[in-house]
Design goal:
By secondary structure, this protein is mostly helical. The protein is 66% helix and 0% strand.
């Protein structure tokens, strides 16, 4: 029964909004009901309100691509007629949500594909991808040079600072081999 009452109130509000007259209901309305009716009337006004289409720019991708591929003469003619669409869409290439587009090979753009359309936004994406690739290559070169330097430094440090126990062992092995070779020479004489 509660839903029937709210439904009838909604219908009543709709009739009021549209300016239609309806027979008064047998139930007397209180101030709370009037407040609720006003709220619903405001909600219905918001729902029924016409959005101003003039303020919005509609996006027609086909026309933008076609007009970008026109010759200079045809573009000038369209500009005189004021029918040339401006592609003022800006891609935020620094947005982290689109990071995979620059790092993952799954999102590569293929310019040789017949459905590929070259626009300003696509050019920005391709330029950013090339720039990031160059930065990555430079970082890898710097890292490899750094590793080579570390390896060279470690080799020099290893020669200079050998463990004292190890150096004693090396000396004893050298002396024993020299003594052994000296005995061998004495036996042959």
């Amino acid at each position: 029964m509660l839903s029937c009452i709210s439904l009838s109130k909604s219908v009543h509000v709709l009739y009021l909004y549209l300016g239609l007259k309806k027979k008064p209901e047998s139930v007397e309305s209180t101030s709370e009901d009037e407040d609720e009716v006003e709220k619903q009337k405001a909600e219905m006004a918001l729902l029924m309100m016409d959005d101003e289409d003039d303020a919005r720019k509609h996006f027609n991708y086909k026309k933008i691509v076609e007009q970008q591929n026109l010759s200079k003469r045809k573009k000038k003619l369209l500009m005189k007629k004021k029918e040339l669409l401006e592609d003022d869409f800006q891609v935020n290439v620094a947005d982290t949500r689109f990071q995979a587009m620059f790092t993952s090979p799954l999102f590569n753009l293929d310019p040789s594909d017949p459905n590929f359309k070259k626009t300003k936004a696509v050019e920005q994406i391709l330029e950013e991808k090339a720039r990031r690739r160059e930065e990555k290559e430079q970082d890898l070169k710097e890292a490899s040079k750094g590793q080579e330097n570390k390896v060279a430094k470690k080799g020099e440090a290893a020669k200079k600072a050998i463990d004292p126990a190890l150096s004693m062992l090396i000396k004893s092995v050298k002396t024993k081999t020299e003594e052994f070779q000296a005995r061998k020479k004495q036996k042959f004489k």
